[in-house]
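Why should sequence recovery work at all? Because a backbone constrains its sequence more than one might expect. Tight turns favour small or flexible residues, buried strands favour hydrophobic ones, and helices have their own preferences. The token representation captures these environments compactly. In the example below, the structure is given first.
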């Protein structure tokens, strides 16, 4: 059964610093390989460097682990909204990779929420 994506908006639960995000299905592209994964992403605009920073975790996935072999990797992350380049870091103790990028995020930004803040 497919999980319904979640959009995180400022003021919900653990959100801080105006972070917005996405939790749900995604695809990690590693070279020619495509791996279906579950992600939990957040992001915010950093006025100091002028970039939108997005980041989060990719749920443990044996197929992705086999491709990456526990190393850092440049990848493309595709969600139902869009795809963006990112970097996977070393996996944590639970086998989850951290993913991050500096670009328009691979999830929808709810601009109405930002205007209300």
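From this structural description, the recovered sequence reads:
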């Amino acid at each position: 059964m497919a999980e319904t994506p979640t959009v995180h908006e400022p003021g919900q639960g653990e959100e801080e610093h105006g972070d917005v995000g996405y939790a749900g299905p995604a695809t990690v592209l590693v070279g020619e390989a495509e791996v279906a994964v579950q992600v939990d992403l957040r992001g915010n605009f950093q006025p100091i460097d002028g970039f939108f920073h997005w980041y989060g975790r990719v749920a443990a996935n044996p197929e992705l682990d086999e491709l990456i072999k526990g190393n850092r990797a440049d990848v493309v992350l595709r969600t139902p909204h869009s795809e963006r380049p990112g970097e996977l870091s070393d996996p944590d103790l639970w086998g989850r990779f951290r993913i991050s990028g500096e670009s328009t995020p691979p999830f929808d930004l709810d601009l109405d929420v930002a205007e209300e803040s």
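A few observations help interpret the result. Residues 62-68 form the longest helix (7 residues).
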